[in-house]
Design a protein that fits this description.
With 346 residues, this protein is of the alpha+beta class. 29% of the residues lie in helices and 29% in strands. 40% of the residues are buried. Residues 251-275 are annotated as: Disordered.
């Protein structure tokens, strides 16, 4: 599995947000033609997003792109990037830092919590685990990322509904003196003082992810945050956007934004061509008794996970769809009032 420095859609539960981030490209993403490999392009085998919570609610963000150096092209491309970053790291962080400052300010307004960002850096290194990897690492400090009160840290509202694609890992860790009180949804993996979610295994919905850690072990459940976080920028996306402008890798367009092949419904083909993406999803859910697993929507319409999540997020925001979780499955449901309206129009 390769993760190209391309485009990935990050969806927030209360709004739709598109960020520049790595998208899955096993050859090429579904519905998106991947460019031919050039010497100055890099394909990452894994993207790691690590968020280390601190006592005062700050968090150290680290975003790593792991590239397997298994041929001359990937090795030469990484070495070229490595030299460029070493010679002028500020060129890779200045505009990124400016954009992050704006993103954090928006998050601060949405959560009613004071936030700032600083200590931006970018670096590279080699790692060897039987195979050799090149690692590109962005890091910065996000002050106020979590709320801190009475020996308890509550985190997750600033990235509510974040979309992590296959090949991407999200890890949140906490200080040694804290114990995990609650985590939503259940993590895919857990370490000592850290929880991990893997893209492709977990789909965050409204109110997720949430993590509460406490020095007493009796932390309160996470309160619902009023207002929208949909305007928050995507941190990882900004890092990759800036990275890609420096490696010369041309974008092919937003993942999931290009027209995608769709499964033909029972309706005649001319009618199908007149339906918007949102109408196609609503029609499919209605045909399945007003309730349907999101995974099945992906399969029936032949869309990418990113595109489906993007459309579903918009429908949730407009109140036309609701979503809830059964185990690890995200289930879509048409609200009763919407279903009644539809029946009256029939």
């Amino acid at each position: 599995m390769k993760v190209r420095f391309g485009l990935l859609v990050f969806l927030f539960a209360t709004g739709l947000l598109i960020g520049l981030v790595p998208s899955v490209a096993a050859g090429s993403p579904q519905g998106t033609e991947a460019p031919a490999m050039e010497p100055d392009e890099i394909d990452a085998d894994e993207v790691r997003m690590d968020i280390a919570l601190e006592d005062d609610g700050s968090a150290e963000w680290t975003i790593e792109f792991w590239v397997q150096l298994d041929d001359d092209d990937s090795t030469d491309a990484f070495e070229s990037l490595e030299r460029d970053i070493e010679e002028d790291p500020d060129e890779y962080t200045q505009e990124f830092a400016d954009r992050i400052d704006g993103t954090v300010a928006t998050a601060s307004d949405a959560t009613n919590r004071e936030m700032t960002a600083d200590s931006f850096s970018v670096s590279t290194e080699r790692q060897s685990f039987g195979r050799e990897y090149g690692v590109v690492r962005y890091s910065f400090q996000w002050h106020g990322f979590a709320s801190s009160e009475g020996g308890e840290l509550q985190a997750g509202d600033a990235i509510e509904g974040i979309y992590i694609d296959d090949g991407t890992r999200l890890l949140i860790s906490w200080p040694e003196e804290y114990d995990l009180t609650s985590v939503t949804p259940d993590s895919d993996d857990q370490r000592d003082r850290a929880v991990i979610w893997h893209g492709g295994e977990t789909d965050f919905v409204s109110g997720e992810p949430r993590i509460v850690v406490s020095t007493t072990g009796t932390g309160l459940s996470w309160p619902l945050i009023a207002g929208s976080v949909g305007a928050i920028g995507v941190i990882t996306g900004l890092a990759v956007w800036w990275f890609r402008t420096r490696t010369g890798d041309a974008d092919d367009g937003l993942a999931g934004s290009d027209p995608q092949p769709v499964a033909e419904p029972e309706a005649p083909e001319p009618e199908e061509s007149l339906l918007s993406n949102e109408e196609q999803v609503m029609q499919l859910v209605e045909e399945n008794g007003d309730r349907m697993k999101q995974k099945r929507v992906v399969e029936e319409l032949g869309w990418t996970d990113a595109k489906t999540s993007k459309v579903v997020s918009k429908l949730r925001e407009e109140g036309e769809l609701e979503s809830f979780r059964i185990g690890r499955e995200n289930v879509l449901r048409i609200p009763e009032e919407e279903a009644e309206k539809a029946s009256h129009h029939e």
